[in-house]
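Below: protein 1.
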Amino acid sequence: MGRTGRTTIQGKYGDTLKIVAVDENGNIVGVLQGIDAGGILRTLKVDSNGQIISVIKGDQGIVAQDASNRLISVIKGSEALDVKQKAVTGELITVMQGNQGVDVAQQATGELVSVIKGDQGIVAQDASNRLISVIKGSEGLNVKQQAITGELVSVMQGLDGATLRTVAVDGAGNIIGVMKGNDAGTLRTLKVDASGQMVTLIKGSLGESITVDEAGNLVSIIKGDYAGTLKTVATDAGGRMLVTPAYNNPIIKNLFYSGSAVAPHNYTERALYTIPAGKAAVLYGGSARIRINTAAGTPRQRVAGVAAKVGGILTWQIYTELSAIHNTIGQFEADTMSIGMPLQAGHQVQCYSADFSTGGSCDIKTVASVMEYDL
């Protein structure tokens, strides 16, 4: 069975084998060397931190450093001359030249001095250093302008066949134009009245002129569709439309109450009808009648009526009454009314009565006529 052992690394120094050194962590200890220009092997230097100490050289020798160990360099231009700089700030001094080899001029503030030239020479300036230009048209003539405001003066022209004609204006400078329309290929001048307003003849889809009355109001015949046929809308003598509402599956409902020798009582609901969901209705009539049957000991107000309610709130009613001065048997009051009040689902129609007398009795009759229909 083999033996466990340790290995020692050796290197050759001349003709002698030397054991390779390591530190306490087992890292190989090495000394870096380089060959100088004379072929001599020299050990590389390091500082106290172990950093290699090197000397930077250029083609003319060792590169210089300042007191802060920064490299010192001299910038040269294409003529191999040193680039100048300011003594205190170190800023580079540059001289700009144009393509003629002449130095670019500067003002005392450092701004460039430039001369703008055109094909005829230097461009002129006014006292405010603004460029002065002359605008010319296609004929090579100078464009005119107003003497004070400097606005351009322009003459508009239009073609009349092959002839150019100047556009006319009025005293305010508004263009004076004659408007024309096309009548089957023929241009016709639009008419105006004495106030300059266009006079227009309006036509309908059948090509007929629309008529107006002496005040200029349109005279129209309104038509509606009836089973695919156009029918003229009817009016009364006052020109108001006559309308017949269309109801789906109409049903007449009558709320009726009749009582004989009814004793005195407070406000009492006698009949109630609520418009059901999915339905609508029209309250088109109501009547109420109250008659003294037997005389009261102390007569007071006696009432009978029909009412319409929305959300429990009274919105309309018809009623008749006998006051406290009435106490003769057979005396009566009655009222009837045709209305046509529209009602929606949830609205209510009610018949009611009241007799606040002491003793005696009354005959009471109330009727409400409702037409209910599908929505």
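Below: protein 2.
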Amino acid sequence: MGEVVEIQKKKQGEMDEYFIEHYMVHNNQTDAYIYAKRMLGIDDFKEEYAKQYGYSLFKKLRAEISERLDEAEVEDAALSRNVLRKLAVEAESESVQVTAAKELARKRIERPSVKKSKDVAELDAEIKSINEQLKEYSDGKD
């Protein structure tokens, strides 16, 4: 009995991997479910229920998919940067070189800055100041 459970767990793990792999490329839960089933050699399932099963599997794997997409985004950004660097240096067209160099510089400029965090006392003082300004404004309206 334990061997059957182990085989089922292994197949489910493989199913999950195939589903995630296909979903990340095609962004379609139904197709990813069908692909995963077929990759496991399972052809005797009802395709009319694939949409529901695909959605269910997506919900189950949502966190894993999100994590992998985040990782892929970082890898894609690194690849993009490498391509831009190569174009900026090696492109035959000066126009392409300039455009690639500008794009590299623009990405540097758009980097978000980290703001100084405030402690509770600073926030309280700021709230008090805003309240005083509001009171002065409303007193002046009368």
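The CA atoms of residues 65 and 71 lie 10 Å apart.
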